Amino acid sequence: MKNFIKNLPKAELHLHIEGSFEPAQMFEIAKRNKIEIPYKTVEEIEKAYKFDCLQDFLDIYYQGASVLIYEQDFYDLTYSYLEKCSAQNVRHTEIMFDPQTHTERGISFEIVINGISRACEDAEKNLNISSYLIMSFLRHLSEEDAFKTLNQSLPFKDKIKAIGLDSSEIGNPPSKFKNVYKSAIEEGYIPLAHAGEEGPPAYIWEALDILSIKRIDHGNNCLQDENLIKEIIKRDIALTVCPLSNIALQVVKDLKDHPLKKMMDLGLKVTVNSDDPAYFGGQVNQNYIEIQKALGLSKDDLVILAKNSFNYSLLSNKNKEEYTKSLDEYFEINK
Ligand code: HPA
Ligand code: ZN
């Protein structure tokens, strides 16, 4: 199974680039930028990475991102992630980045986007992996702040495919961002959002009906509302599920109780993703490996998950057909 997963062609659709920041690289960049971080060793960092909930994690995650200053830092961070993708047979990735985490500290939007997008271009050439960027608004900040970010992004519109919504969910419902989503859609961005990770089903309804989202990040709590499940299926919208993240943030208590297979059986389209791999104990393949083992997923299930990862990506239909065909061939040879 491990080899089957390792060689399975796949896409990753839920990944925060700031959450891919590995401790060793954090030390290296902090050192060259002469920034003090509150840890001396990788072991100390790992000890600090114990979370009771989303907010616990976010506090540490924003602190980690604060050592990123120069375009080269954003480049190195992104290129390292893409190298890991390449080693896991991730052929396409849709990367979220949080501009406000950086612009709030006085780093320009331009530095962030240029570093990230240059790494993506180089990885496409050198590693044969394609990527799209998702600009995510921090939902604990105001809609006005999100508008500022939207305006900053417009000169770089050709580098950004979609918008997302992340950070502290409870108390910050999707409806808070109604107007900025409307404007972003008019600018040609595809609307996506985190919903129902800790928040109630009502937040998922709002993300669908008020923000018009085309994909739900996490979405676990849709299971509490039968009508919502039906609606998600009817609209053919996928959930980007992140098993190890759910364990790390105590959204799910034990992987054996993870609802991924139940979601598939209900007819929901789900994908497997790492979310913040440097913080949650595993890259995307580790998520596949651990959830396969915990739930006893078959090779059939794994191929469905990988097919979903391409079919619910933002790739063209032609690309989706090609990847579906290559997954059929892969299954035929390796079943
Ligand atoms: N949820 C919300 N915000 C985030 C996450 C997440 O899982 N990861 C990074 N920012
Ligand atoms: Zn996320």
Characterize the structure shown:
- The chain has 335 residues and is an alpha/beta fold.
- It has one domain (2-333): TIM Barrel.
- Helix content is 52%, strand content 14%.
- The protein is globular, with a radius of gyration of 19 Å.
- It binds hypoxanthine (HPA) and zinc ion.
- Hypoxanthine binds at residues 16, 19, 54, 166-167, 194, 197, 245, 275-276.
- Zinc ion binds at residues 14, 16, 166, 194, 217, 275.
Give the topology, please.
Blueprint (H helix, E strand, L loop, with lengths): L1 H6 L2 E7 L6 H10 L9 H7 L5 H12 L5 H17 L2 E8 L1 H5 L5 H19 L2 E9 L4 H11 L8 E5 L11 H9 L3 E2 L1 E3 L5 H9 L5 E4 L7 H9 L3 E4 L1 H6 L11 H7 L2 E4 L4 H4 L3 H12 L3 H13 L5 H18 L1
Parallel strand pairs: 1-2, 2-3, 3-4, 4-5, 6-7, 7-8, 8-9
The protein binds hypoxanthine (HPA) and zinc ion.
Quick recap:
The chain is of the alpha/beta class.
Which properties best describe this structure?
binds zinc ion, 14% strand, binds hypoxanthine, alpha/beta, TIM Barrel, 5-stranded parallel beta sheet, 4-stranded parallel beta sheet, 335 residues, 52% helix, globular
Low-confidence stretches: none
Tally the structural domains: 1
In this entry the ligands are:
hypoxanthine, zinc ion
Number of helices: 17
Record the strand order, biggest sheet: 1-2-3-4-5
The largest pleated sheet is described as:
5 strands, parallel
Task: Tell me the series of helices and strands, N- to C-terminal.
Answer: HEHHHHEHHEHEHEEHEHEHHEHHHH
Q: What top-tier CATH class fits best?
A: Alpha Beta
CATH topology: TIM Barrel
> What spatial form do the alpha-carbon principal axes imply?
globular
Radius of gyration: 19 Å
